[in-house]
Amino acid sequence: MRNITNRSADSCAGTRLQHIPVQAYLSEPLLQRIHRIASLQPDRAVYGILLGRFEERRRNDLLSITSSVLLDADDGICRTPLFSEDVFLEAFESNQLKMGGRQLLGWFAARKTGLYPLHVDAVTHECYFRRPNQVMLVLDLRRERFRLYRFIDRIPFSVPLRTFKECDSAGTMIFSGTDKSRNSEAAGHGRAAVFSLEHAWGRKARAGKAGSAKTTIKPLVA
Fold this sequence. Notes:
Radius of gyration: 17 Å
Order of helices and strands: EEHEEHHEHEEEEEEEHHE
Helix content: 10-25%
Number of helices: 6
Strand content: 35-45%
CATH class: Alpha Beta
């Protein structure tokens, strides 16, 4: 599988996003799993629920996305997710043992329609994921890129995002050093930081020899 690239923009001036800053972390094994399943269904969009931990901090709130519940939620006509209260209840009940203390952090959509959320995404988010800490992860299968969003008044804003490979027994995130390959390019609503996941997915051997690609942050995941 080729590398997926993450695009995440800085906070946008002049919006309420400045008053609720957030730093988000996404599990690479989870991203790989979603991408693998979505790639097996090229004619359908794949949707699901994002689970993890949210912590309020004095300066920056922290989101740690560690797992998901895949949903067969494509109506086959309009290509929109069919979330409902019954869907959430069934997902939580069937995954109760696996969830532990995880929280509902939002949802994801994997499809071949680009990285920017559709209008129906904004409506869906407002209907089912209204909490300020809930986000949407968009995977573009055609270009193999992904981006995380928050919605403010139905307007999507990119969230700064880092990926981590795993957590050790103490709950410490082990990162891949992806920030080292960062480049900037213009985005529709600001400057977007673009960086590759080659360190984690395609060049593990080289990263292991270097011995300096891993960093740790204490602790987000219980």
